[in-house]
Amino acid sequence: MGVDLSSRPGVAHATLSVEAPKAEAGDIREQAHRRAPLEKGHLFNARYVPFQAVASGSGRASEETYSLDEVVYRSRDGGLLDVEHDMEALAIYGPEYWRALFDSRIGRTSWPFGSGVWSKKEWVLPQLGDDDIVSMFEGNSNLFWAERLGREALGMRDLWVKQCGNSHTGSFKDLGMTVLVSQVNRLRRLRPEAVQAVGCASTGDTSAALSAYCAAAGIPSIVFLPADKISLAQLVQPIANGALVLSIDTDFDGCMKLIKDVTAESPIYLANSMNSLRLEGQKTAAIEICQQFDWAVPDWVIIPGGNLGNIYAFYKGFKMCLDLGLVDRMPRLVCAQAANANPLYQAYKKGWEHFEPVKAKTTFASAIQIGDPVSIDRAILALTATDGIVEEATEEELMDAAARGDLTGMFNCPHTGVALAALTKLRERGVIAPSDRTVVVSTAHGLKFAQSKVAYHAGEIPGMAATHANPPVPVREDLSAVMDAIRTKFSSMR
Ligand SMILES: *Cc1c(COP(=O)(O)O)cnc(C)c1O
């Protein structure tokens, strides 16, 4: 069909062809199946190696390696594993190729590239078939210019918040879980008897993500939750998604110990972040940050840390961008911990000489209430390699910082509050300069934490001044009472 536009004003002799796009047959998964398999997918590969080998720079030479199709969580000596990519194969295609490829996939619906994670598939799990992928088009979260918070509260011009909590289950755990559950989906196809269910211990967000992705794929899931230590929203998520929810009378560290024993002796696959597959998904948030700044690197990235897999995942994402030439430097990383669960902070203060687990005390930042972080070695590598810093925030500091941010249009979870409180301290000490481009990673949606935010604004948290409390004002159904209340708040109004 051709449309002659020559009779329209201002359009001389132009003929515009407006072919209707041809509708492709089948659903998007079937369409992906018919497409030639990822043109270059078979050229790349990834495998497990001991994390120690990566840390010592001998990853490629390590003789201890495992296929990603094996069910293995630990190296022979009991250490962590790492997913290692064939960087030489990836480097054959220059930075322009990768930038253009990744940019071309943003915001599309073609399977599976509508996902921010799988739009980077060659850098995540290159050998996984598109058919095996379990995705809800996670990632691609907005990078928010925190204009008023930066200017008015922190004296900064270039402050950004990466809104990773604007995601399917309301936290950035979706990024890693799509990768883990996709690989599990493949394993179950290859060896159905080997993986009959997937389990995790959780401070809330991991279980929400695991149960949602398993439900999307029809895979049974089991979650171990510390009784009375997670928010109501986090508890109802796995319940709604049909997981077996075990509420156990212990803390996160206790749940973790139990799930390790259970997965060691049954065909239940371990989904905790000890499992290095999840970090491959989490790292894409760092790649996305570079991409959103048109492949430029911010000066600082501040991440709340508990089990400490994520501080390393962000490091790994930035490092891949650097090593493959997409960017020209690394940011400085800041790990922000709750003072009530601060073993990394304490080790940092001692110059990394000595690490000792702590008994984590209750914190509103419940997802990082972890005293014995499984990824401690990963975190120390990430921080020492980036001239990184560890900061801490008390309960009052983290709730005030979250609430201060909310007053500029955000709706922060307490973990984001920990990161914002850390930023405040680093600004006050002059470590971060007014013009430094700084990204705060917001890790969960504030709506998951409505209970504690309501308690803050009601002034109901014992011992907390709640500087930014803004409780609702009860008024009679009466015009003058309503006007009095308005004038009390806005004293300049007549
Ligand atoms: C998991 C989580 C974190 C911390 O990530 P770690 O890898 O455990 O350090 C921070 N915030 C939220 C909301 C989380 O769910």
From TrEMBL:
Pathway: Amino-acid biosynthesis; L-threonine biosynthesis; L-threonine from L-aspartate: step 5/5. Pfam families: PALP (PF00291). Keywords: Amino-acid biosynthesis, Chloroplast, Lyase, Plastid, Pyridoxal phosphate, S-adenosyl-L-methionine, Transit peptide. It is found in: Plastid, Chloroplast. Its cofactor is pyridoxal 5'-phosphate. The modification N6-(pyridoxal phosphate)lysine is found at K173. GO terms for molecular function: threonine synthase activity. One of its GO terms (cellular component) is chloroplast. It comes from the Eukaryota. Its EC number is 4.2.3.1. It is an enzyme of class 4 (lyase). It catalyses: O-phospho-L-homoserine + H2O = L-threonine + phosphate. InterPro entries: Cys_Synth/Cystath_Beta-Synth (IPR050214), Thr_synthase-like (IPR004450), TrpB-like_PALP (IPR001926), TrpB-like_PALP_sf (IPR036052). CDD domains: Thr-synth_1. Residues 134-443 form the Tryptophan synthase beta chain-like PALP domain. One of its GO terms (biological process) is amino acid biosynthetic process. Its main location: plastid. Homodimer. Belongs to the threonine synthase family. NCBIfam families: thrC (TIGR00260). Catalyzes the gamma-elimination of phosphate from L-phosphohomoserine and the beta-addition of water to produce L-threonine. This is threonine synthase.
